[in-house]
Design a protein that fits this description.
single chain; Metallo-beta-lactamase, Chain A; globular; alpha/beta; 7 helices; 14 strands
């Protein structure tokens, strides 16, 4: 499986509008972060995790010309607002897009994008063609098993995913004990690490380091990072086996 990091930032992105801090004005391209998303090339298919508001820019920058399915972690704006951009992938593939999400996320998508799911909507201008699938357990895509991993995002339980020896847990503030068995034996773990200061719905860097040690993956990559974390400076302070991801990073699992 090949994993391409399309976005590794927070809901604001980095740089933030109107901010002149050292990270937002950095010349290091690793400090420029789209909203969070990854593309998984697996079993002959391309699976997009989340459709953030930067999807068009991500696809153009990183050469994404094919998406065969979408899986959603949850329905916050920075993870769903690019859904309309998927109509271009309908044109390229000539097929409707299967999307996979839990019941709450599907309900929120139907509210936020009512015109997409309303069969009476006029087709003028183009409408994403999607086929929703509600997930309640493992499901198959392109010969691989996608295992939903419940994680805590503040008071809300959202969905991480395990595929083979890879797992993606963005927007994470806690990993329930019941999810431990779903995360054993990983080669690569992607885990949210917002900043050093505490936050009610996201791990700090220190909390993410502790969670990474608990999971015990061979390699852990942090994502969903705000402008408090400069790539080079933060990387120097991380333990062996733990790294910061960055937009455009490609990892083979």
């Amino acid at each position: 499986m090949r994993v391409t990091f399309l976005g590794t930032g927070t809901s604001h992105g980095v740089p933030m509008i109107g901010c002149r801090c050292a990270v937002c004005t950095s010349a290091d391209p690793r400090d420029t972060r789209f909203r969070p998303s990854v593309l998984l090339e697996v079993g002959g298919g391309a699976v997009l995790v989340d459709t953030g508001p930067d999807l068009r820019s991500q696809a153009l920058k990183f050469g994404v010309t094919r998406v065969d399915a979408i899986v959603y972690t949850h329905s916050h704006a920075d993870h769903i607002l690019g859904l309309d951009e998927t109509r271009r992938f309908n044109v390229l593939s000539g097929a409707a897009m299967p999307i996979y999400a839990d019941a709450r996320t599907l309900a929120d998508l139907r509210r936020a994008f009512g015109y997409v799911f309303d069969p009476s909507t006029s087709p003028g201008g183009g409408i994403p063609q999607v086929v929703p699938h509600q997930i309640s357990g493992p499901f198959e895509l392109f010969g691989e098993t996608f295992v939903p991993v419940p994680i805590e995002h503040g008071p809300r339980t959202i969905t991480g995913y395990r595929v083979g020896r890879f797992a993606y847990l963005t927007d994470c503030s806690g990993i329930p004990d019941a999810s431990d068995d779903l995360l054993r034996g990983l080669d690569v773990l992607v885990l949210g690490a917002l900043r050093h200061r505490p936050h009610p719905t996201h791990f700090t860097v220190e909390q993410a380091i502790a969670a990474a040690a608990r999971v015990g993956a061979r390699r852990t990559l942090f994502t969903h990072m705000c402008h408090d974390l400069g790539h080079e400076e933060t990387s120097r302070r991380l333990p062996p086996g733990v790294e910061l991801s960055y937009d455009g990073l490609v990892v083979d699992v």
